[in-house]
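We include the entry.

. . .
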Amino acid sequence: MGAKKSKKKKIVLAYSGGLDTSVAIKWFMERGYEVVCYMGDVGQGADAESARKRALEIGAVKCVVGDLKKELLTDYVFRALKAGALYQDKYNLATALSRPLIADAMVKVAKKEKADAIAHGCTGKGNDQVRFEVTFHLKAPSLEVYAPVREWELKTREDEIDYAREHRIPIEQTKKKLYSIDNNLWGISIESGKLEDPWFEPPKDTFISVVPPEKAPQRPEYAEITFDKGIPVEVNGKKLDPVKLVSMLNRAGGRHGVGRVDMVEDRLVGIKSREVYEAPASQILYSAHTALEELVLDRETLKYKRGVSQRYAEIIYNGLWFTPLKEAIDAFVDRTQTRVSGTVKVKLYKGSVIVCGRKSRYSRYRESLATYGEGDVFDQSLAKGFIDLWALPYKK
């Protein structure tokens, strides 16, 4: 009998259909791996099916596409929204929120496929490598973890494009348009290419879903958003499931130029990076949610929660979703949201979201105390004594 043929090792690769992961399929195959691709459908649209076919064309033995859209919103995005989490007060964490979800789903596929290893296509400069690998280590510590972009001989994106052409790997990137784009229901991130110069204004072809504010309609559009315990449930009186609600607000905000963010971001690895984001629904919902909290939360809770919001954003950004601290903060946030129910009216106009009305049965606003007109019940004579006591510690 001849020698027994050794079994190929199997690896599950986080696959997006982009340049890095398309090249990674062939790269792992050349090193003797059977490649199972996993693609989380988090709302990137029709590209999911075409990318799945492309993975098989390149040589993957299987490409699993998981529908994660609803789970992304209900279990990840709405938790961040309730917490008020915006990294550096600007970034809605759309990419950061999707990574632990995808990584967790990948681990489940790896166990089902009896894979030996798991891999992602993140660079050694970015944050996503941390988000993926921390989740892998927590959920499946026995699996080997690989990050080919950190290791391979292809030093630039131009090198990757040359490799793809040499191996007849179908890709969409060209050397003239080197943007790296990550798209999901909650937002789109665009980086690389000429955008690496922080002085360079993003050209028209940078943006996908948001029109330039100067080309937005001359008439504003109003929307009424209803929340139940901090979670958006209705738009204009119509109850919608999370995917439809966010998709509707993305379209509305996009046509009015709402949701563009251009920032210099402090990455976890210690470098600054110029990032461009599109997130129309997110900007609308954060504005509305904040306005409702101002109406229903007491002053001290609101003040304390602002610090928690910043810390929660850092936890998400730094890949620590599945940690005890995050769970503990979730409990605090959920308690603060028990009365964050009501409706907020917003006006979308030329790139801005303007809150122009809010109401709730839990409102702490009292017109009889705030008014300067008839019906005022505030005893102004008490103000002098209050001010004297307030100033007392500072008197010489």
Q: What stands out?
A: The two ends are 101 Å apart (CA to CA).
